[in-house]
Amino acid sequence: MKFVAFERAKQGTGASRRLRNVGKTPGIVYGGEGQPQLIELDHNALWHALKKEAFHSSILDMELAGKTSKVLLRDVQYHPFRQQVQHIDFQRVDANTRLHMKVPVHYKGAEESEAVKLEHCLVNPVVTELDISCLPADLPEFIEVDLSGLKKGMSLHLNDITLPKGVKAVTHGKPNPVLVSVVVPAAEESAEAAAGAEGAAPAAAAAPAKGGKEAAKPAAKK
Questions:
Q1: CA torsion angle 191 192 198 202 (round to 10)
Q2: Residues β-bridged to residue 146
Q3: DSSP alpha helices (H): ranges in the chain?
Q4: Cα→Cα distances 87→10, 70, 149, Å
Q5: Of 129, 62, 67, 119, nearest to 90 (Cα)?
Q6: Burial class (CB in 10 A: 0-12, 13-18, 19+), 81
Q7: CB-facing half-sphere around the CA of 34: CA atoms within 13 A
Q8: In this structure, what DSSP letter does residue 46 have?
Q9: Is 24 helix (H, G, I), strand (E, B) or coil?
């Protein structure tokens, strides 16, 4: 994705407030070999760009002073109750430096799985984005996971999927976290429990009481 930024000469609370009052958003670009660069962006264009998933998880082309450079969105500050972006941070991208990013996980095929189609289970996504490490050229916009092989009682773990080439997951001490779990609907669990209880009742009735039939016989007359 491409966006246009403009050089910002002044900084400080007052200067930033004046920018916001005229429909601009203050920001900064940092990292790489260059010095931090103060920028401003058109607020309406930025607001609409932020609604797109790719703006948050892919390498962006920033046009500034007639030159285009590669950057990543690193931080966005919103107004507490207004629909307004207060400030935005971008990081320059070095082609030879590995990135640490969060990317969305897109699940597909759940409706075609045995768990849903035949067993009428619910598929519960536990993880909706993954921390990854990769070079800029290998950064995926999202990671797609096929759920068509799910069965009742299964859980899909990180080690069960294949990550894109050059991408490593950052798991923060959890080597194989659960991505998706298959859940039996509560109504079905209740029905199974009731059926089990009904099956146990006749068995209990058929078993002789303590003492058996002998306990029911009258004592023999002497």
A1: 160
A2: 108
A3: 13-21, 43-50, 53-57, 114-117, 186-206, 212-216
A4: 14, 19, 44
A5: 62
A6: exposed
A7: 14
A8: H
A9: strand
Least confident of 129-138, 170-179, 205-214: 205-214
pLDDT tens track for 133-164: 999 999 999 999 999 999 998 999 999 999 99
For the full predicted model, state whether its pTM sits above 0.85.
Answer: no
> From start to end of 16-112, where are the E strands?
24-30, 37-42, 60-64, 67-78, 85-92, 99-108
Query: Half-sphere exposure (CA, 13 Å, Cβ side) for 213?
Result: 1
Residue corresponding to tokens 């029905």: 191
Tokens describing residue 157: 């773990």
Between CA 123 and CA 115 the distance in angstroms is 8
Q: Which residues of 15-51 are buried (b: 16+ CB within 10 A; e: fewer)?
A: ebeebbeeebbbbbbebeeeeebbbbbbbeebeebee
